[in-house]
Here is the input.
Amino acid sequence: MVKYQIEGRGIRDRAVLDAMNEVPRHLFVPNKLRHRAYNDYPLPIGLGQTISQPYIVAFMTELLQLNGKEKIFELGTGSGYQAAVASRVAKEVFTVEIYSELARSAAKRLKAIDYKNIHVRDGDGYYGWESEAPFDAIIVTAAADHIPPPLIEQLAPGGRLVIPLGGPFSVQQLILVTKDSKGRVMEKPIIPVRFVPLLGH
Ligand code: SAH
Here is the structure.
């Protein structure tokens, strides 16, 4: 998977490649889909939600330019796979999932593989995780029609945020949001993507 789907498409960050090799993706998909876990596409994880395609997980993680010291917030835990990958290349991950059933199973899975630097909570991630802010990086894994203002507030100066922007039934743009040391915010479209819609708020 890593050699052809990830490295082959230009991901060069060694820490991200190592994380993609290390995290056992087959443990994050439903049992009956395990034989397809390492294939080049997203898979259903129940409740109409999906685990992202491996390449997109690697791509979004690389965009954050992590060095191992960061505190990260993720909106949309889903299976917990993106959080698991991010946790290998950052210090701590705080992730929120709107479906308590998914939050519970992701937390259980992450405990079973002993990834201790990930904190899962159920709730509406639109509001971030205020008591843990600011975050050096933020990953939104559901498509929104705007960037949630609480997430911009909770992004540290010098921080990076990635979010798919656009309607639920169309192709969205993955946007990289950066906040400079003076608190100025810039947005840059990166690639077209397709994510499940942001719910709640
Ligand atoms: N990062 C996930 C992929 C998740 S798909 C993984 O690696 O498996 C997007 C997830 O976002 C879904 O599980 C969906 O239930 C969740 N979601 C949608 N809107 C949300 C919101 N407002 N707050 C928290 N989670 C939300």
Strands lie at 43-46, 49-51, 71-75, 92-97, 118-122, 135-140, 155-165, 172-179, 185-193. The two ends are 36 Å apart (CA to CA). Residues 49-52, 75-76, 78-79, 81-82, 96-99, 102, 124-126, 141-142, 196, 198-200 surround S-adenosyl-L-homocysteine (CB under 6 Å). The mean pLDDT is 97.
